[in-house]
Amino acid sequence: MLLRFKSSWELQESAATPESVFMDRRRLVKAMSIAPFLGIGTTLPYGKANAVMADPTKRFYPANRNPRYRLDRSLNTEKDVTTHNNFYEFGSHKFIAKEAQKLRTRPWTVTLDGMVEKTIVIDIDKLILKMQLEERLYRFRCVEAWSMALPWTGFPMADLVKFASPLKGAKYVIMETFHDPDVAKGQKQFWYPWPYREGLTIEEATNELTLIGTGAYGKPMVKQMGAPLRLVVPWKYGFKSIKSIVRFTFTDQRPVSFWEKVQGQEYGFWANVNPAVPHARWPQDTERVLGGGGRRVKTLLYNGYEEQVAQLYRNLKGENLFF
Ligand SMILES: Nc1nc2c(c(=O)[nH]1)N[C@H]1C(S)=C(S)[C@@H](COP(=O)(O)O)O[C@H]1N2
Ligand SMILES: [Mo]
Description:
globular, disordered N terminus, 14 strands, binds molybdenum atom, binds ligand MTE, Sulfite Oxidase, Chain A, domain 2
């Protein structure tokens, strides 16, 4: 059935779906005007209107690449990166991609709270619309000694911190993943302290490298990689880069993160990459490149980002900076 464009949206709005799914009028008009196949006043198949509504941020991809961030190695293929994942909510192995498709990423609400001027609760698409997306090529290193290099899309976390207006006394930001054991069966494993939680100092969160990832390979983030938004901190071990975030809480207390609660001796707060400091279970001097047929390369201090981040840690004495 063909409907006039406007009335197809009206039909949507009267449907029994949570209010938060719907874009407000202003954004709707914007979304319409940028989609070349959707001329206002023309007709379109109902299904297409639905597709735009499903992820109205699609039009921002691919974002312009920021040329400042260069790699010393070739990019992994999209397949390498989307078929080998850590996302314990969907299973404690690497092949969770199919299971992760159960995650519903629209509607998605993000809360910014704690030591902020005023708590903000915002729809993911409204949040992304406020931010400037860009593409960056980064290395990524898991503590399990595998690594990859990929094009992320996202926005500087510094912009999110600014938007949140933290109070002067705030020193850390805690991030939290969704909690829905019916969808994410891994969250039925009661011995883990769900939801997944991670933290950064405000200085780390506002470092130029720190991204809130919304996509990769020129597309919105796939679910197994932590849609619709995740952290990307390339100088730290992978477990710091928390996926599918629903909450940012500003605080003056250093948080205890998910893996630190599980095994504090092995996974600490700082978790900066350092080839000279072996982990209890994995030596860290070299890493296996995903999709590289077993190829190993030397691991770099701060994963190669020493220039951008070393100053964050200069005055921290007596801290275990590397786990
Ligand atoms: N919510 C959540 N975030 C997470 C994890 C997880 O299990 N749950 N695993 C972490 C670990 S150990 C790594 S190495 C990276 C993996 O990201 P990737 O699957 O995109 O490579 O996600 C991190 N973020
Ligand atoms: Mo990891």
